[in-house]
Specification:
Blueprint lengths: L1 H54 L2 H10 L4 H25 L1 H8 L4 H23 L3 H24 L4 H26 L8 H35 L2 H38 L6 H11 L3 H17 L9 H26 L3 H51 L8 H28 L4 H23 L1 H9 L11
Helix pairs in contact: 1-3, 1-5, 1-6, 1-8, 1-9, 2-3, 2-5, 2-8, 3-5, 5-6, 5-7, 6-7, 8-13, 9-10, 9-11, 9-12, 10-12, 11-12, 11-14, 11-15, 12-13, 14-15
Length: about 475
């Protein structure tokens, strides 16, 4: 019950953050255009890739070691000093080659990249310790605070005439705020502040030497396509692609919340007993990994063009890209549960291999497909590579523990999504025949009714889902009893 409530809190927080970011992105796109939006996301993409060299898997290692319940402060200090040293080294090279960096970005933002790198690094370290302390819901709540602060400052700065500089200021302030708040909460949880020993550094490095590739894998899923697109297509097309990506990101939030909630529990359970003891939690993760992604795919296919039209008419050319990216996030939602479990049972080496396969294939496919098919090629490359990595992850985990795929529960989610899709399609037909509703109003109405129909249908046909909902509500509802 506690895990379910934590997942819901974390998901609600991340959803709120993504909604705020989505609204801010619409505002930016409408006021500054796709070219400025594309430049901004190229900066973020560059920071995301450079952060890999700075973090080197240390945040993941911190979460793992802190979740084991010993010497939390020592691990934080050890991890912090490692990444701080790496930050200075990477920043030196960014500033040394600032002319080349500015040319790639199409804007003199090398110093901004260094600033962004520092604030994102600080927040990542604090967030990793919160997760290790089983405070996943707290780390989740900080996300909408960061995004809300960033968005409000960015919108205000744009209205004041600061354009892209306002985007940079808002981003920086948002990250600094949650880093300070998160660090205050982290320190309050420490029993004592102890200095790290050589053994603490060794334990972090022994885990990080494999988990660093997980950082690359995450960045590859989010940013390889954007980075490669920067070499082959205009900033305007990059902006259109990232708009489609922002919509698809909504759908992966719940699966991410679930995996982050379950990781410290799996880690603690595996350390106390054996790897097989996490099988039940893993099967639960698979049962709900597609809870939001499956209906999201159906809805995205039907409403994709209208959703993109909210950004502006020029963005509608990304409708096919949006559909393919939603497929990619659906596959990624399940793949993440496999790699999370591998890491939790202290087999980052196996997760390393899975991530290596994804990264290599993703980079190769993007380089091959983007020059010929542009933003559509980037979307196909992402979906194809994550599918291959899912198959590799399945083979790796099945060799370590016994588990079963909850086909029945997943099938019922598809049935409910089909009913929802039929409802949305009927609504579109009614609007085209009898009405002339504003696009944004129609989208909101259909999304709302589609959501109600999906979850209502799932409650009717799934005993397992009814039981889970009833267990995680503050009061028992007789109608939801199995």
């Amino acid at each position: 019950m506690r895990l379910g409530q934590t997942s819901i809190i974390h998901f609600a927080s991340r959803f709120s953050a993504s909604l705020l970011g989505f609204l801010a992105t619409i505002f930016i796109a409408r006021y500054l255009g796709s070219e400025t939006l594309g430049t901004y996301y190229l900066v973020l993409s560059t920071v995301a890739w450079l952060s890999i060299a700075v973090k080197m898997g240390v945040p993941s290692a911190l979460t793992k070691r802190v979740s084991e319940g010993n010497d939390e402060a020592a691990y934080l200090i050890a991890g912090g000093t490692i990444v701080l040293g790496l930050f200075f080294a990477v920043s030196f090279f960014v500033l040394l080659f600032r002319n080349q960096v500015n040319t790639y970005l199409g804007y003199p933002a090398a110093k901004v990249v260094v600033l962004f790198l520092f604030v994102t690094l600080t927040q990542a370290i604090v967030n990793s310790v919160l997760k290790g302390q089983h405070l996943v819901h707290i780390s989740g709540v900080l996300t909408p605070i960061r995004t809300g602060t960033r968005s409000l400052i960015q919108i205000g700065a744009i209205l004041a005439g600061f354009k892209i500089v306002g985007l940079f200021v808002g981003y920086t302030v948002g990250y600094i705020l949650v880093s300070v708040l998160g660090l205050w909460i982290v320190v309050r949880q420490f029993d004592a502040i102890t200095t790290p020993k050589v053994s603490h550094y060794r334990k972090i490095i022994s885990y990080a030497e494999y988990s660093w590739l997980s950082e690359i894998r995450t960045r590859a899923f989010n940013w390889v396509d954007v980075a490669v697109l920067g070499f082959f297509v205009s900033s305007s097309l990059v902006g259109i692609y990232t708009a489609a990506w922002n919509i698809s990101v909504f759908l992966i939030l719940f699966g991410g919340s679930l995996s982050q909630t379950l990781f410290p529990e799996m880690s603690s359970l595996s350390a106390d007993e054996d790897p097989q003891s996490v099988a039940d939690l893993f099967e639960t993760a698979l049962s709900y990994g597609g809870l939001v992604l499956i209906p999201g795919l159906v809805g995205g296919v039907l409403l994709g063009e209208r959703l993109l039209r909210v950004y502006g008419e020029e963005f509608t050319q990304g409708s096919v890209v949006l559909t393919v990216l939603i497929v990619a996030t659906l596959i990624q939602g399940y793949q993440r549960q496999f790699t999370t479990t591998l890491n939790a049972i202290d087999r980052p080496d196996m997760s390393f291999r899975v991530n290596a396969v994804f990264i290599i294939i993703n980079v190769i496919f993007n380089i091959i497909l983007i020059p010929y098919f542009g933003i559509r090629g980037a979307a196909v490359a992402t979906a194809s590579s994550v599918l291959v990595s899912l198959l590799v992850a399945y083979g790796s985990l099945s060799a370590l523990i016994e588990f079963s795929i909850p086909i029945g529960e997943i099938g019922r989610q598809w049935v409910a999504a089909g009913v929802m899709g039929a409802t949305i399609y009927a609504g579109l037909q009614l609007e085209s025949t009898y009405g002339d509703v504003r696009n944004i109003v129609l989208v909101l109405v259909l999304v709302f009714f589609g959501t109600v129909v999906y979850f209502g249908t799932l409650l009717l046909i799934s005993t397992h889902f009814r039981t889970t909902v009833n267990q995680n509500l503050p009061y028992n509802i007789p109608l939801l009893k199995a």
